[in-house]
Amino acid sequence: MNGILAKKLGMTQIFTEEGECVPVTVLEAGPCVVVCHRTEEKEGYTAVQIGFGLKKEQRANKAELGHFNKAGVAPRSELVEFDVEDLANWPVGKEFGAAEFAADAKVVNVSGISKGHGFAGGIKRYGFHSGPRSHGTHNMREPGGLSAHSYPGRVFPGKRMPGHYGNKKVTVKNLQIVKVDGDRNLLFIRGAVPGPKNGIIVVRKG
Questions:
Q1: CA–CA separation, 109 and 202 (whole Å)
Q2: How many other CB atoms are there within 10 angstroms of residue 65's CB atom?
Q3: Is the full-model pTM beyond 0.90?
Q4: If you write DSSP's letter for every residue of 55-95 in order, what string do you get?
């Protein structure tokens, strides 16, 4: 299994044996359960679908209930597929956690939905410099000129302007696993991880 689903609990700091203070993000990775298989004969690729986080039955529709009942597992709120080398090692219904995932993983790539900031201006969204605040000026936080009057006479796509800030998928690569707590299914990852507290994080081996 090259990945696992986790929930972001927050940030803290731990001290290494050398006395170094390391900022870490704590992820609750598991318990996850194998829900179904994707085979080369049927879907055209080999993978397993895993579920994370319990979901009340009354909040699941009939299709979801049938999917989970077929696997013989309780409804899960999150489903993600991961590549595997051998499906026989990951039978449907098998549960695993942080210890199994981190047994041979030292560096991981994490993906999550970044914090949403709503509609933001250029200064907050891109770090633009503000305008002068003296002599009767009125463009202290406005973006300023966008294009020439002659050529191109229009605004090119991708121009950095005010707009929706955050709330999109962000992936951070090559983060180090500093500590693993197998009893509580906790991963201590060095540095920051995208997303708010209690956000769902996809962790893949780097």
A1: 8
A2: 13
A3: no
A4: --GGGS-HHHHHHHHHHT---EEEEEEEE-S-GGGS-TT-E
Quote the tokens at residue 108. 């991981």
The 10s digit of each residue's pLDDT in 96-124 is 999 989 888 889 999 999 999 999 999 99
Distance CA 134, CA 187 (A): 52
Distance of CA 120 to the CA centre of its chain: 22
User: For residues 47 and 93, what is the distance between their CA atoms, to the nearest angstrom?
Assistant: 15
Going by C-beta distance under 8 Å and a sequence separation of 6 or more, which residues neighbour residue 58? none
Please state the domain extents for the chain: 3-118+164-205, 119-163
CATH of 3-118+164-205, one of 3.40.50.10490, 1.10.10.60, 2.40.30.10, 3.40.50.2300: 2.40.30.10
> Which residues contact residue 88 at a Cβ distance below 8 angstroms, ignoring those fewer than 6 apart?
none
User: Which residues, 6 or more positions from 117, have their beta carbon under 8 angstroms from its beta carbon?
Assistant: 124, 125, 165, 166, 167
Q: Which residues contact 170 (CB under 8 A, 6 or more apart)?
A: 111, 112, 113, 114, 194, 195
How confident is the model over 162-189, as pLDDT tens digits?
999 999 999 999 999 999 998 999 999 9
Query: φ, ψ for residue 155 (rounded to 5)?
Result: -100, 120
